[in-house]
Design a protein that fits this description.
With about 325 residues, the protein is α/β, with parallel strands linked by helices. The protein folds into two domains: about 160 residues, TIM Barrel, CATH 3.20.20; about 110 residues, no CATH class. The protein is about 35% helix and about 15% strand. The strands form two sheets. It has a seven-stranded parallel β-sheet. A two-stranded antiparallel ribbon has the order 3-4. Helix 4 links the parallel strand 5 and strand 6. The two termini are about 30 Å apart. InterPro entries: AKR, Aldo-Keto_reductase, NAD(P)_OxRdtase_dom_sf, NADP_OxRdtase_dom. This is Aldo/keto reductase. Keywords: Oxidoreductase. It holds the Pfam family Aldo_ket_red.
Length: about 325
């Protein structure tokens, strides 16, 4: 996503293609995109970058949320015929005959989840997708969906400072033997130390509208980060690596998918793969940045309206 969408970045195509190739060469094999990202540009980018590597990797994409070409607005539509159309278009853009995991990007509140998931199940039966995924759904929605068709993975934001899956989704995934794919495990850059009080957000950067990053809440959250950073220093790892190893320590069914435009950061993140937290450090971290300590909601009211995930009451 970061190469095409979300943070106001303008990455030239040749640089983006080089970055994706470098990611593959250093060992990344799970690539995640969506119809939404860059208004389909990200799928075209991955289709070009990974065409010759397709059989060596796991490719994931998403449907059910797109950019309307006329208004430029996000549109959530989970109707079966729309999901099929989007899948066919994604296959073409991605230069592939199948997508390994295909997620319903958002729950369409006007369409029963059973209808949307049933449509994705038919695409599995036809060999167009390998398995069904869901994104930003509640445990209740997951249970309903699973009764209709087997779900392989659920994407949800999960990091040290975003614990929403711990309300119910984490246990639901464990019970049903479903992978929890943790997006933004680095807290949208916050847990790397890259965000400071005076950090400017580019035009189009979604963080500019997120309450946790506003002028009232960010200084208070940075005070929490200071302690986190000191633990990383004690353990001789970077804050980003510590954030990733914490997510992995929460369960063997959890798969973090950090995003970055920086090849150096890709290497930094990948080197966290074999790190293991000792019990005292894990216990310290578990007690940090808990929902009662973090200031501000993770989404604005408008952004929150698109998701079905359980939410905490912020401090």
């Amino acid at each position: 996503m970061n190469l095409s969408h979300g943070y106001g970045q303008k990455i030239p195509e040749d640089e983006a293609l080089w970055s994706l190739n470098e990611a593959f060469e250093m060992g990344y094999r799970h690539f995640d995109t969506a119809t939404l990202y860059g208004a389909t540009a990200n799928e075209r980018l991955l289709g070009k970058a990974l065409k010759d590597k397709r059989r060596q990797l796991l490719l994931a994409s998403k449907c059910g949320m797109s950019i309307d070409p006329e208004s430029g607005q996000r549109v959530v539509n989970g109707r079966p015929e729309i999901l099929r159309q989007q899948c066919e278009a994604s296959l073409t853009r991605l230069n592939t005959d199948h997508i390994d995991i295909y997620y319903l990007h958002r729950l369409d509140r006007n369409v029963p989840i059973e209808e949307s998931v049933g449509a994705l199940g038919k695409l599995v039966d036809e060999g167009k997708i390998g398995s069904v995924g869901l994104s930003e759904v509640s445990a209740d929605t997951l249970y309903r969906a699973y009764k209709e068709y087997s779900v392989a993975a659920v994407q949800s934001e999960y990091s040290l400072w975003t614990r929403n899956p711990e309300i119910a989704l984490l246990n639901a995934c464990k019970e049903l033997e479903i992978a929890l794919v943790a997006f933004s495990p680095l807290g949208r850059g916050f847990l790397t130390g890259a965000i400071q009080v005076d950090t400017p957000f580019a035009e189009g950067d979604m963080r500019a509208n997120m309450p946790r990053f506003n002028v009232d809440n960010l200084p208070k959250n940075l005070a929490l980060f200071k302690r986190f950073s000191s633990i990383a220093q004690e353990l001789n790892v970077t804050p980003a690596q510590l954030a990733l190893v914490w997510v992995k320590a929460q369960g063997s069914h959890i798969v973090p998918i950090p995003g970055t435009c920086s090849v150096a950061h890709m290497r930094e993140n990948l080197s966290a793969e074999n790190l293991v937290l000792d019990t005292p450090s894990l216990e310290k971290l578990n007690g940090m940045m808990t929902p009662d300590k973090v200031h501000g909601e993770r989404y604005s009211l408008a952004q929150q309206g698109d998701i079905d995930t359980e939410a905490f009451t912020p401090a």
